[in-house]
Amino acid sequence: MSNAAKRIVRIEVGAVTLQAALNDSQTARAVWEALPITGSANRWGDEIYFSVPLTLPEENPQELVAVGDIAYWPEGPALCLFFGPTPVSRGSEVRPASPVNVCGRIMGDATVLKAVRDGTPIRIVRPEEK
Residue 22: which CATH number? Predict the structure, then answer.
């Protein structure tokens, strides 16, 4: 098993707890090193984003993402959790406000995040952290 395969994180947002796998990008490594990260959830359609204490360059920026993707938004700077269309999506596509660095993927059903409201505390931690 590679080090990248071991980069599993726990996302806690309100009553919702999810696991996610970070990829092997430089962005994902920076997120991993910054853990734990806490913030306040902001909803934008079926996306949650929250400010993070990271300033990272664009890395393979994507204009379209998939349900379940986790991405760093350089313009925020913020982390984004995608679970459906956003206000700028066309049809069922999942489109960020501007290009993002995809750095991970939610394991399981990302649509449970639909229950999260603006202002809900959010934490991303390593699995062993309490």
Answer: 2.40.100.20
Residue 130 covered by a domain: no
Domain that holds residue 8: 4-125
The torsion angles phi and psi of 37, rounded to 5 degrees, stand at -115, 130
User: What single-letter amino acid sits at 7?
Assistant: R
97, β-bridge pairs: none
Q: From first to last of the 130 residues of the chain, give the pLDDT tens digit.
A: 344 457 999 999 999 999 999 999 999 999 999 999 999 999 999 999 999 999 999 999 999 999 999 999 999 999 999 999 999 999 999 999 999 999 999 999 999 999 999 999 999 999 888 7
